[in-house]
Write a structure and sequence with these properties.
single chain, mainly alpha, two-stranded antiparallel ribbon, 10 helices, 2 strands, 71% helix, 2% strand
């Protein structure tokens, strides 16, 4: 048992990232109905378990969340692992539990990445999973606003959608906001929703500019070059990630003619 725990903890970031990626993108390779009804609950259990593994060095916090999840399973039953399709008081409680848990895990991931003395593959996986976790936190924030104040978000993916599709739409909106893509199909229309969108966008940029830059600096200081004298692939990826904003500013931008006044 100790050997399994040691192996799992060494690969904690990789396991957490894998479960996140499969939850988000599993429906690309598995039929949507099978993914939502069968695969997604199983992956969610794995994601919760790996999240607890990430904070397992903090014994009181670990015991607290394990007790909370056991209590939640007693209260909600198997519905605790299902996608939210109706929103009542119990669903609000479940949403708060998710938000608190993922906020705690995200803070722990960032802290572990920040304190890492040597940058290896696990730290890089941690860097990636931390960024994905920020998107999930943004989703919980947007969903809470939409539940408390219906109509806070507008767009072709929100209007007329049932609650299940609205959840998927807000996950999508959270990530395109975090990535500062902003296609425009969904947009905030209330002051609270607009400020929340600004907050998520800023946090995403701060993560790239500060956290990623710190990891790049540590990597360059300790392992700038491999033994062969060339930069490793990890170095190139990290440098490209940290300089993303600068590269975008250098690109020539052409505007459609309808935006240019004659």
């Amino acid at each position: 048992m100790n050997k399994f725990y040691d192996w799992a903890y060494r690969n904690r970031f990789e396991l957490f990232l894998s479960s996140q990626a499969t939850i988000l993108f599993g429906s690309l390779v598995v039929p949507l109905e099978i993914h939502q009804t069968t695969l997604s609950p199983l992956l969610f259990i794995i994601n919760l378990a790996t999240g607890i593994l990430l904070i397992s060095k903090n014994k009181p916090l670990t015991r607290f969340f394990i007790s909370l999840f056991i209590l939640s399973l007693v209260v909600f039953g198997s519905n605790f692992l299902d996608r939210a399709t109706t929103f009542n008081r119990l669903e609000y409680i479940r949403l708060v539990i998710y938000f608190v848990f993922y906020a705690t895990v995200t803070i722990n991931i960032i802290g572990q990445v920040w304190k890492a003395q040597e940058v290896n593959k696990n730290v890089i996986f941690g860097l990636m999973s931390g960024y994905i976790s920020l998107g999930l936190l943004g989703f919980f924030l947007f969903l809470s606003i939409q539940i408390i104040e219906p109509g806070s978000f507008n767009g072709i993916l929100i209007e007329g959608a049932d609650n299940g599709n609205m959840v998927d739409s807000l996950i999508y909106y959270s990530y395109i906001t975090l990535l500062t893509i902003g296609y425009g199909e969904i947009y905030p229309v209330t002051p609270v929703a607009q400020k929340a969108a600004i907050l998520v966008g800023l946090i995403g940029q701060f993560y790239l500019v500060i956290i990623t830059a710190v990891v790049v600096e540590k990597y360059i200081q300790t392992r700038t070059f491999s033994e062969s004298g060339y930069w490793t692939i990890a170095t190139v990826l990290l440098v490209l990630a940290s300089s993303r904003a600068a590269l975008i500013e250098e690109l020539p931008i052409s505007y459609p003619s309808r935006y240019i006044n004659d």
